[in-house]
Amino acid sequence: QVQLVESGGGLVQPGGSLRLSCAASGFTFSSYAMSWYRQASGKERELVAAISSDGSNTNYADSVKGRFTISRDNAKNTVYLQMNSLEPEDTAVYYCYAKRRWGKGTLVTVSS
Predict the structure, then answer these.
(1) What CA–CA distance (Å, rounded) separates 33 from 99?
(2) Cβ contact 94:36 at 8 Å
(3) For residue 13, is it left (φ>0), alpha (ψ between -120 and 50) or beta?
(4) With contact defined as beta carbons under 8 Å apart, do 101 and 22 qualify?
(5) d(CA 34, CA 58)
(6) What is the pLDDT of residues 46-92, one digit of tens each?
C-alpha cells in the first residue's frame, strides 16, 4: 500500500527554521514528482512546493519563495522541506502528496 508519513513539525519562534520530512513507501519513489501542501485553520489547502522525480526541477508558492527549499533523497525514499525565516502566517498543517494520495500531516506553529 502507498504510505506517506510526515515528521518534523513543532513550535518555532518567528524568524526560526524547521525541516520537515516525508517518508514514502509502497511505490517506486524515484518515478514520481513529490509535493508539499499546507492548510491553515479555516482556510483551503494550498500548494507550497513541488519537485520533479529526479530532483532537477522545483516550484514554489510566491509566499514562500526564497525562504523554503524542497529536496529529495531517492536512495532514502524521502522528500524534505527546509523552512527558514518562518512567519506566523506559515502556521498550518503541512501535508506530503504523491501518486494521488496524502499523508496525515504534521503541524507547524510559528509563534512568540
Answers:
(1) 8
(2) yes
(3) beta
(4) no
(5) 10
(6) 999 999 999 999 999 999 999 999 999 999 999 999 999 999 999 99
The fraction of the chain above a pLDDT of 70, given in percent, is 100
Name the grid cell of 12. Answer: 518555532
User: Which of 9, 12, 8, 54 lies closest to 30 in space, CA to CA?
Assistant: 54
How far apart CA 7 and CA 23 sit, in angstroms, is 8
* pLDDT at site 43: 97
The number of CA neighbours under 13 Å toward the Cβ of 32 is 19
What's the grid cell of residue 111? 509563534
User: φ, ψ for residue 74 (rounded to 5)?
Assistant: -65, -25
